[in-house]
Amino acid sequence: MPATADPEAEARADLAAIPTYYTKVAAVSPINAGLIEVELGGGLDEFATLGGDEFFYMMMPRPGAEPIPDDYTMAAYMAQTDDERPMGAYYTVRRWDAERRRMTIWVVVHGHDAGVGGWFERCRVGDRVVIWGPRHSFSPPVEAREQLLVADETGFAAVAALLDETPPGRPSTVVLETIDEQHTIDLSGFPDATVRWLFRGAAEPGTGDALLRAVRDIDLDAAWLVAFGAAESRQITAVRRHLRDDVGMPAASVFMTGYWRRADD
Ligand SMILES: Cc1cc2nc3c(=O)[nH]c(=O)nc-3n(C[C@H](O)[C@H](O)[C@H](O)COP(=O)(O)OP(=O)(O)OC[C@H]3O[C@@H](n4cnc5c(N)ncnc54)[C@H](O)[C@@H]3O)c2cc1C
To answer: Residue 2: pLDDT above 50?
Structure first.
């Protein structure tokens, strides 16, 4: 790398090079009491999937704002102040249908009408969404023979997408937190996955340490394991620390991401 390189400018240029697509809501249907499936289609002819836990930053105008222009890019986004930017949040590609050029996402309905989740809850077929991506984080080491997948509802799409790609015969231990039985997803199509459900009941999402305690209870062999986690930031950080410090997993085998952050009380 030349001595004059500016790593921040390079990082900005890398991000600005990620494509922006202008697509639309093509179908909406419920998955369970707290999760909706949204299909996006149109404008995705050039999309090249990365697979795995790939995700997009999805944008729509703030309430009352002008539509997002057709030539809007991430370079324009970066040049704007927070107040000028469209509303946006990250969502995982649950499924990519290469033939129909449609992508499916799973959106958690979390009761904050003003945000992106609320927008998807109210959206109609034909509503326009500007999406920036894809990017991904999960890159399992080649020697991995078993996987641990840990998530709250926001990570269900990523966990299901990763299970879709897991070679037959490779065991997965899956630890998932949600409200109750009515808020689970069907993972019966994955016979190599051992699924443990954790129900928080009336407790607020993002509180408690059930994910950490459940992972602590599992006898893990750091040698062959790769771990993916997606949940509230502080909860998944606690799981990462346990896997790194107590189980002794190397950093290259641990992919734990805070998918949202609970507001401080
Ligand atoms: C890489 C990545 C992939 C993701 N994939 C998905 C996905 O596939 N499906 C999905 O639903 N989410 C996913 N998320 C999480 C999603 O981006 C966040 O939940 C985001 O905050 C939602 O934006 P919002 O505008 O609705 O709420 P915000 O305006 O960001 O937040 C408003 C309020 O709601 C609270 N809040 C935000 N999310 C939740 C939640 N899930 N439960 C309870 N309270 C919440 C916040 O703490 C805040 O108080 C992903 C995040 C990342 C980083």
So the answer is: no
Alpha carbon distance 126, 128 (integer Å):
6
Q: Is the pTM of this model over 0.85?
A: yes
Query: 5: which 2 tokens?
Result: 């390189």
Which is the closest atom of ligand 1 to the Cα of 262? 47
Residue 244 Cβ < 6 Å to ligand 1 = no
Is residue 185 within 8 Å of 108, Cβ to Cβ?
A: no
Q: How far is CA 4 from the centre of its chain?
A: 36
pLDDT at 200: 97
What residue ranges define each of the domains in the chain, with the CATH number in brackets? 7-135 (2.40.30.10), 146-260 (3.40.50.80)
pLDDT tens, 91-110?
999 999 999 999 999 999 98
Output the CA 1–ligand 1 centroid distance in Å: 37
CA 263/CA 256 separation, integer angstroms: 20
Assess contact for 18 and 132: CB atoms under 8 A.
yes
